[in-house]
Design goal:
The complex is a heterodimer of chains A (131) and B (175). Chain A contains three helices and four strands, in the order ββββααα. Chain A is mostly helical. In chain A, the strands form two sheets. Chain A has a two-stranded antiparallel sheet. Chain A has a two-stranded antiparallel ribbon with strand order 3-4. In chain A, a hairpin with a 3-residue loop joins β3 and β4. Chain A is elongated. Chain A starts with 5 loop residues before the first strand and ends in a 13-residue tail after the last helix. Chain B is mainly alpha-helical and 175 residues long. Helix content of chain B is 79%, strand content 0%. Classes of the chains: A mainly alpha (131), B mainly alpha (175). The interface between A and B is large, with 88 and 90 residues.
Chain lengths: 131, 175
């Protein structure tokens, strides 16, 4: 079996020097991407969602950003699930999706009823609960 | 570069660009369509990770059901002109993006250190990665996670009742 070890050049000066992180070999399966890359992508997607919640004032887009964050978490769950060789992480993805579906249904119903009262979905204009 | 790396970069780039498009488009319809692209790319990543069931559910539930709900509400509210106004100020936006970059740096740092965790590292080093089938997930779901699975149905029931109550009260007030 071919064995390839590539150290990540970006972190030469830092802590991660000389650590072979990709690709790891798995018996009979060829190469796999290392877990770290999936976790980094997951972190970036989550951050995009956080920035979206911070900069957008449209309630529907804020909801979409929450979906984005839940999906980033799902990606981390599945990546770690594969890394550990267990299906447990995927079971949790299943639960996260259920919660997301319930949350979207309720949230959109609330947005629709707020829009009926106020003719706006801008979260800055819906502030009557503010103390 | 082997096939998985190329596909990972492809799907990863598409999902990130889609995610950035979600928060940059002014019109919510474009945001919703970008979000669908992101979900599809993530389904591709799930296939790469050997999670075929999750990938299928991602496409059916997320890209199918949830996004249809979003598009339906956007269509129902007809937000075309209303949504354009009401972005936050330039200064606050800059602050938010700086905080976001810091947050991303933290996340990447944690991800880079994930393999230092002994439990993950030992599993990674043995290379015991397998493709989990729907059978495996189903077995776990109906044995070890039976109670959470049943609670899940309770959550859905609560959501169902909540939505009906919300919508019904609105209707009665109008009459």
């Amino acid at each position: 079996m071919l064995q390839a070890t590539i150290t990540l050049q970006l972190y030469k000066g830092g802590i991660f020097i000389d650590r072979a992180i990709m690709p790891t070999t798995v018996k009979g399966k060829g190469f796999y991407m290392s877990l770290e890359y999936y976790l980094i992508l997951s972190a970036l997607l989550f951050t995009t969602g956080v920035i979206g919640v911070l900069i957008r004032r449209n309630a529907i887009i804020i909801f979409m950003c929450i979906e984005l964050m839940l999906n980033a978490a799902n990606l981390a769950f599945v990546a770690i699930s594969r890394s550990l060789g267990e299906a447990t992480g995927q079971v949790f993805v299943f639960f996260v999706m259920t919660v997301a579906a319930a949350e979207v249904a309720i949230g959109l119903a609330i947005i629709v009823s707020v829009f009926k009262h106020r003719q706006t979905v801008n979260v800055d204009e819906v502030n009557s609960l503010k103390g | 570069m082997n096939a998985e790396q190329i596909l990972f970069i492809l799907f990863g780039a598409v999902s990130l660009i889609g995610a950035i498009a979600v928060i940059s488009f002014r019109h919510p319809i474009y945001s919703a369509l970008s979000l669908i692209v992101t979900f599809f790319a993530q389904a591709g990543l799930f296939v790469l990770l050997g999670a075929h069931f999750v990938a299928a559910v991602q496409v059916i539930v997320y890209a199918g059901a949830i996004m249809v709900l979003f598009l339906f509400v956007i269509m129902l509210l007809n937000l075309g002109t209303l949504s354009v106004q009401g972005a936050i100020g330039r200064k606050l936006k800059g602050l938010a993006i700086i905080l976001g970059i810091l947050f991303a740096a933290e996340g990447i740092y944690i991800a880079m250190n994930a393999l230092n965790d002994t439990a993950v590292a030992s599993a990674e080093s043995t290379g015991a990665t397998i493709t989990t089938t729907t059978y495996d997930i189903g077995e776990l779901l109906f044995s070890k996670y039976l109670l959470p699975f049943e609670v899940t149905s309770l959550i859905l029931l609560a959501a169902l009742i909540g939505v009906i109550v919300l919508v019904k009260r609105e209707g009665q007030e109008e009459n």
